[in-house]
Amino acid sequence: MFKTLPDQYVQVGQINTRYWAVGEKGTTVILLHGIGSSIETWMYNISVLAQHHRVYAIDLVGAGRSDKPPTTYSLTYLAEFVKDFMDTMNIESACLVGSSLGGGVVLQFALNFPQKVEKLVLVSSLGLGQEITLSLRLATLPFVDKLFKPSRIGTALLLKQSVFDPTVITNEWIEFYYQIATLPRAWETLVKLINTNIDLFGVRTEIYHTIIDKLATITAPTLVLWGRQDRILPIAHAYVAIKGLPNANLHIFDSCGHWSQVEHSAEFNRLILEFLAN
Questions:
Q1: To the nearest 5 percent, what fractions of the chain are helix, strand and coil?
Q2: 269 vs 36, 143, 174, CA distance in Å?
Q3: Separation CA 68–CA 52 (nearest Å)
């Protein structure tokens, strides 16, 4: 069942940016989605977290219903976009919660703008190793953007790869994400984003080494969340984070894939609220 909030838009530099905002007290929390996703990935979380916090969910530049300029979608570029969003909204510092690609953006943000970070939550985060699902590696082959176009069948397969229990992905989910995937410039921008960060062997070496080599400098309290049965990014990357980050704790969800915020939303929300309260 989709539980969406009213869309809001703000001009972040030249980028017309869609976001949700709810809650009036506590720490400011910013939710960042993954590759090919949008703010709807947080629909089971944002209102619960907002009972105690001011929470924003952003469609990253190039994703969802935000603008999709023809540019190189590096983690550095995306982290700078998040900083610009915060500056535009007069947010001095926040707890950043990132899922998958969003986790990589959070890590890059923490390296580049440590003074703007209060706490971090990494949800099956990109940027902690080379291994990544074959489907994303194959998307880097030449002419993929010309030979293939989004379909409802393809959308269903990708969504079901993100969860342990495929029945979680209803026809409503499939139709919604198919509509997002077929927005103007969405497909070519997604392929560009994937190619910037991933090659046929996995996450590009310069992407994850830049982060791993500097993990020890990220001193903000960090909560690492991972699904034991994640088929997109392996659970081994969670232990890379725990080993490298000086102030991190790990929670692993059983019977859970890449989207713990969806499959185990109640426990996910409880863990984050407890983490923010301490």
A1: 45, 20, 40
A2: 23, 40, 24
A3: 33
Taking the C-alpha atoms of residue 139 and residue 148, their distance in angstroms, rounded to an integer, is: 10
Instruction: Report which of 141, 277, 258, 147 is spatially closest to residue 199, judged by C-alpha positions.
Output: 141
pTM greater than the 0.85 cutoff: yes
Where do the structural domains in the chain lie, given as residue ranges?
8-130+204-277
Residue 52 among the catalytic residues:
no
Q: pLDDT (tens digit, 9 = 90+) per residue, 165-197?
A: 999 999 999 999 999 999 999 999 999 999 999
Angstrom distance (rounded) from CA 144 to CA 139: 6
* Three-state secondary structure call for residue 135: helix
Residues 6+ positions from 266 with CB-CB distance below 8 Å: none
Q: Which CATH architecture has domain 8-130+204-277?
A: 3-Layer(aba) Sandwich (3.40)
- Compute φ and ψ for 148, nearest 5 degrees: -120, 150
Question: Going by C-beta distance under 8 Å and a sequence separation of 6 or more, which residues neighbour residue 201?
Answer: 130, 137
- Measured over the CA atoms of residue 98, residue 101, residue 105 and residue 108, the dihedral's sign is positive
Query: Active-site residue among 33, 237, 258, 264?
Result: 258
The per-residue pLDDT for range 221-248, each reduced to its tens digit, is 999 999 999 999 999 999 999 999 999 9
